[in-house]
Specification:
Helices cover 32% and strands 23% of the residues.
Length: 268
């Protein structure tokens, strides 16, 4: 089993590589990680942002698994935090909802991604968006700083999810809420998938069972937890056969192990 710090290094390297690729290149691999699972089409994860107000094509690397801004109930004047903000895609959509009176902060642990997001914001000229380098498990923010926290297909990459949700709870204002799109599983992933660092960077092996994921949220003190949207993700046999024998693949299908993207909301 790879230790958490090594997993973070794998994720950081993969997403540094992604930042230098086009959306088309990223869409041809699971979570965009080149070489991770190059036969998989990442569009089975991602949702279409092109009709969203505030959408910036240059900031869309095709890495999400939902549309958290659609369920986040962001209001004009809100201060919004986007965890794992990447090139800024969700931040620009959130900024259209907060308006000039609000603020949007993006947090990412990958220097290259933060630089790319800042370059995109320079093109747009927004003074109420900032991109910060930092770790979701130990956020560089004050307690009760944000009205809304959003995240898109990122928390599954965090080794200590309880610590991450604890930090979300800390930085949210009283009565604030989050809306997170993420990858979860139903059933048990085969060990070869569960323990592979490359697949971890590809969003799959780092995913928790849905019931456990929601329990972690509850244990951090959140209330009114609700799954707003759920979508099954079908990984192709060509990908799974990189990790499983034909017999193991047959058992995987028979056992009805499922991978899902969910969008979940909860309140502090």
């Amino acid at each position: 089993m790879i230790n958490p710090e090594d997993l973070k290094l794998v994720v950081k390297q993969k997403y540094s590589d992604i930042a230098t690729q086009s959306k088309q290149q990223n869409s041809s691999s699971c979570c965009g990680a080149a070489g991770c699972c190059s036969d998989a089409d990442y569009t089975v994860f991602s949702d279409d942002y092109s009709n969203e107000t505030g959408y910036l094509k240059d900031a869309d690397l095709g890495l999400g698994c939902g549309l958290p801004t659609s369920f986040a109930d962001i209001k004009p004047g809100d201060h919004v935090l986007d965890l794992g903000s990447g090139a800024g895609n969700d931040c620009f959509v959130a900024r259209a909802l907060t308006g000039d009176a609000g603020r949007v902060t993006g947090l990412d642990m990958t220097e290259v991604m933060v630089d790319l997001a800042r370059q995109n914001n320079t093109k747009m000229g927004f003074s109420n968006i900032e991109f910060v380098l930092g770790d979701i498990e130990s956020m560089p923010f004050e307690t009760e700083e944000f009205n809304v926290v959003i995240s898109n297909c990122v928390l599954n990459l965090v080794p200590d999810k309880a610590k991450a949700f604890g930090e979300i709870y800390r930085v949210l204002k009283s009565g604030g809420h989050f809306c997170i799109s993420d990858v979860v599983i139903s059933g048990n992933l085969p060990d070869k998938l569960k323990h592979d660092a490359e697949m971890y960077a590809g969003c799959v092996s780092g995913a928790m069972p849905m019931e456990q994921y929601l329990q972690v949220i509850h244990q951090q003190g959140f209330r009114d937890i609700k799954v707003q949207k759920e979508k099954e993700i079908k990984l192709p046999d060509s990908l799974l056969l990189q990790y499983l024998s034909p017999d193991e693949l047959s058992r995987y299908r028979i056992d009805r192990t499922g991978i899902f993207s969910i969008t979940v909301t909860a309140f502090k």
